[in-house]
Specification:
Length: 314
């Protein structure tokens, strides 16, 4: 590159914490943080695709003291919002997210099962493991908590029962955040910030507020923000996930996003069974037998209608 500066400070490896389009904040393995830009060649290679969570090499430009990204390492995972109709043109929310942690409250606000299932489908659609946190359990009748949890445990999701007000379940939750990149999500008021503050008292992290305040400012292109945790790992705050809009998942793939359906998906009488009213449907048979929760199946049906509608509109 004719205009490439002659860089050559030592290379540092780091993680992209945030970005505003041109300048990215990178946290190196030694804990130092740098504002960096993409170098000419990487930029030309189409790396407007660079995302929060990317694992990169950075180097200091010895002429100007500016830092730039010299290499983007292969991604483990990709949390992306697909274009409708299954077209390519996806919008990357964050790279290298290891898990999605979905927080709901037992009460105040009441848990909305359709919304829980929607978050889970987003995780499944991106092939990222998910777990559920039921917070404010001290407000609920234990039997009701168990009944709600059972729907998800039966589907194979780990469920954490937590309370910030009458502390419980906090150590177990901290254990699963350590050394992983976690997209923490859930509706407003369920206690996401309270949980993080209870787990990491020194951190005074206000998950949600960070990206919201950035997004309300001038830099509307800013998506997720990665927040380093004191004992290793990161929490990603993803405004894109919270909106839970249309993710462009092809409607035919929705059944695969319900893990408890998967074992029987080949057994329906019709190969293109939508698991609604078709005769010989193995999924509905599972609902009748009680191996698949009726609530989950109902969510599936609602989400399917939604996806089909958006496909028609597209
Ligand atoms: N009773 C009870 N209240 C809680 C618990 N955890 C959090 N809260 C309260 O719930 C309210 C909302 O908590 P936040 O932590 O701000 O919720 P949030 O999920 O971060 O909400 P947003 O930032 O709007 O997305 C606060 O008044 C908290 O004190 C809990 O375990 N039990
Ligand atoms: Mg919050
Ligand atoms: Zn079927």
């Amino acid at each position: 590159m004719s205009d490439s500066p002659v860089t050559r400070g030592p290379l540092l490896r780091g993680v992209v914490l945030s970005g505003t389009g041109g300048v990215w904040r990178v946290r190196a393995q030694d804990g130092t943080e740098h504002d960096v830009s993409l170098r000419g060649r990487l930029k030309q290679d189409g790396f407007e695709k660079l995302a929060v969570g990317d694992d990169v090499d950075i180097a200091e430009d010895m002429r100007g003291g500016a830092w730039s990204i010299t290499r983007i390492h292969p991604r483990r995972t990709l949390l992306a919002r697909r274009a409708p109709g299954g077209a390519r043109g996806e919008r990357v929310v964050a790279a290298n997210v290891d898990q999605v942690v979905i927080v709901f409250a037992i009460a105040k606000p009441e848990p909305h099962v359709r919304m829980i299932d929607r978050f889970l489908v987003i995780a499944e659609g991106n092939e990222i493991p998910a777990r559920l946190v039921l917070n404010k359990v001290e407000l609920g009748d234990p039997a009701a908590v168990d009944a709600l949890a059972a729907n998800y445990e039966r589907a194979g999701y780990p469920v954490h029962r937590t309370s910030v007000k009458q502390p419980q379940g906090l150590d177990a939750l901290r254990d699963v955040l350590v050394n992983r990149v976690t997209a923490l999500t859930g509706p407003s008021g369920v206690g996401k910030s309270s949980l993080i503050n209870a787990l990491y008292p020194g951190l005074s992290l206000r998950v949600g507020e960070i990206s919201e305040s950035v997004n309300k400012g001038r830099h509307t292109t800013v998506g997720a923000v990665l927040v380093p945790l004191p004992d290793g790992g990161y929490v990603v705050d993803t405004p894109g996930l919270r909106e839970v809009g249309m993710w462009g998942l092809p409607s035919e793939s929705l059944d695969h996003c319900f893990p408890e359906f998967r074992p029987v998906l080949g057994e329906c009488r019709f190969q293109d069974c939508a698991h609604l009213a078709e005769p010989g449907c193995a999924v509905r048979a599972g609902v009748e037998r009680g191996t698949i929760s009726a609530e989950r199946h109902e969510s599936y049906a609602k989400l399917l209608m939604e996806l089909r509608e958006s496909e028609r509109a597209y």
